């Protein structure tokens, strides 16, 4: 089988592994609803584009190889090849299309072959970055060695200096984690579940603390204790993880408690949430798919915890530990806390401004700069600096006055 045929085989099911997001151009109203870039509306629009034939045949060909437009940490857009060294796996995770014993055609690359295949695509300007994972064959340590060999060939023999996201395998050793951090821009290991109890029902042969959480803790220890010049390009890489959502009865509070720990203690750049979709011929094939809106609410809440200064206790959890699907969590908090005590835009500090719906970190910066020049007196002033006024208006004062009555002007 040639390399392109292998990439095509491997790309089947890679959509189940969210990494850097696929780029989708959204209408302005969708941006307001989808800060994660990953809402049901986005997914529908992507499918519509393909079905209506708007996506070019080159794009379709690239997608068939596993190459997608993706947003990098920092916001740059690139064509990212998302693939595996092998789709053979000796483990039997209940949700996974690559699990051992499942009957489908598998493909395997040797490290040198993968490195050269990618560099050919890179030099032809077809793929600008690489996300590389693998099924487990011969144990986590040996599989990790093959991933490291691939990265080493790319960086040191083929002199590739572009974006590389390298997966850490369950059971990898600490030295291997450090080596990956010397070669990659981002490293990640999928926790899959929020705790040991839930992982047992999802992936019975993975060990939550020792195999999955420990490598993330090692990575943060290495970043804290060793000089950054030892990392790739003089920086230690960012860290991320992924959770499968809705397969085994875990609630949002469980997932977000673990996410909050990872964000605050291990400085995780990003947690990815993947709404469960049943895969035929797996033990969970008869479980219903999870509602994609749940994934969206988890993303929104994780950003509120990471970037907006909110705590878990601020979030509108229901008694069963789930977030309501029909309410934006920031709006829910504001309705409870700001409806009667609106924030004065001209005096509030950064922390207070960040709590207002429609105002994000960039909006706060713009408000603080605008205030140096004079008072912000009406919604037009706020709109001109990028605030989503329809969302912010019920919760703010402008020069001592509620701006609600001005909404009809917009
Ligand atoms: S170890 Fe990874 S590839 Fe293998 S079955 Fe589990 S999730 Fe799938």
Radius of gyration from the CA trace? 23 Å
CATH architecture of the largest domain: Alpha-Beta Barrel
Could you tell me the strand content as a percent range? Answer: 5-15%
Q: Please, what is the average pLDDT?
A: 89
Record the SSE blueprint:
Blueprint: H1 3-11, H2 28-33, H3 40-51, H4 57-65, E1 67-71, E2 77-84, H5 111-123, E3 129-133, H6 140-157, E4 163-167, H7 174-183, E5 186-188, H8 196-202, H9 208-225, E6 238-245, H10 252-265, E7 270-275, H11 292-307, H12 329-337, E8 343-344, H13 350-354, H14 361-373, H15 379-384, H16 389-392, E9 396-397
Parallel strand pairs: 2-3, 3-4, 4-5, 5-6, 6-7, 8-9
Antiparallel strand pairs: 1-2
Bound molecules: iron/sulfur cluster.
Structure, explained:
With 410 residues, the chain is of the alpha/beta class. The chain has 2 domains: 3-314, TIM Barrel; 338-409, DNA polymerase, domain 1, CATH 1.10.150. It contains 16 helices and 9 strands. A 7-stranded mixed sheet has the order 1-2-3-4-5-6-7. Strands 8-9 form a two-stranded parallel sheet. The chain starts with a helix and ends in a 13-residue tail after the last strand. The structure holds iron/sulfur cluster. Residues 89, 91, 93, 96, 98-99, 135-136, 203 line the site of iron/sulfur cluster.
Labels describing this entry:
binds iron/sulfur cluster; alpha/beta; 410 residues; globular; 2 domains; TIM Barrel; 9 strands; 7-stranded mixed β-sheet
């Amino acid at each position: 089988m040639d390399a392109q045929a292998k990439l095509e085989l491997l790309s089947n099911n890679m959509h189940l592994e969210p990494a850097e997001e696929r780029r989708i151009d959204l209408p302005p109203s969708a941006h307001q609803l989808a800060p994660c870039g990953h809402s049901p509306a986005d997914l529908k629009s992507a499918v519509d584009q393909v079905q209506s034939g708007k996506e070019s045949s080159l794009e379709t060909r690239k997608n068939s190889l596993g190459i997608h437009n993706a947003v990098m940490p920092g916001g740059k857009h690139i064509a990212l090849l998302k693939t595996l060294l092998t789709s053979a796996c000796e483990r039997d995770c209940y949700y996974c299309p690559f699990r051992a014993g499942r009957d489908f055609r598998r493909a395997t690359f040797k490290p040198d072959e993968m490195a050269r295949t990618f560099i050919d695509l890179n030099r032809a300007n077809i793929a600008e970055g690489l996300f590389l994972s693998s099924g487990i064959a011969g144990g986590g340590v040996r599989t990790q060695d093959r991933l490291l060999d691939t990265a080493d060939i790319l960086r040191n023999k083929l002199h590739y200096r572009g974006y590389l996201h390298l997966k850490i395998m369950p059971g990898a050793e600490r030295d291997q984690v450090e080596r990956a951090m010397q070669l990659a821009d981002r490293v990640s290991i999928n926790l899959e579940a929020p705790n040991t109890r839930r992982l047992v029902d999802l992936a019975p042969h993975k060990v939550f603390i020792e195999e999955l959480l420990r490598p993330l803790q090692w990575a943060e220890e290495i970043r804290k204790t060793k000089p950054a010049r030892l990392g790739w390009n003089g920086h230690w890489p960012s860290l991320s993880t992924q959770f499968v959502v809705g397969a085994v009865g875990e609630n949002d509070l469980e997932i977000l408690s673990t996410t909050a720990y990872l964000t605050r203690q291990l400085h995780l750049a990003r947690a990815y949430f993947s709404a469960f979709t049943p895969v035929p011929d797996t033990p969970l094939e008869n479980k219903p798919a999870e509602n994609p809106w749940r994934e969206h609410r988890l993303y929104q809440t994780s950003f509120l915890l990471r970037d907006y200064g909110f705590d878990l206790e601020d979030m509108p959890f229901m008694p069963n530990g789930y977030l309501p699907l029909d309410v934006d969590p920031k709006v829910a908090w504001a309705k409870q806390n700001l409806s009667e005590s609106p924030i004065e835009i001209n005096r509030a500090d950064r922390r207070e401004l960040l709590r207002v719906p429609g105002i994000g970190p960039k909006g706060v910066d713009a408000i603080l700069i605008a205030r140096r020049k004079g008072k912000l007196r009406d919604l037009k002033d706020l709109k001109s600096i990028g605030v989503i006024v329809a969302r912010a208006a019920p919760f703010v004062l402008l020069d001592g006055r509620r701006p609600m009555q001005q909404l009809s002007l917009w």
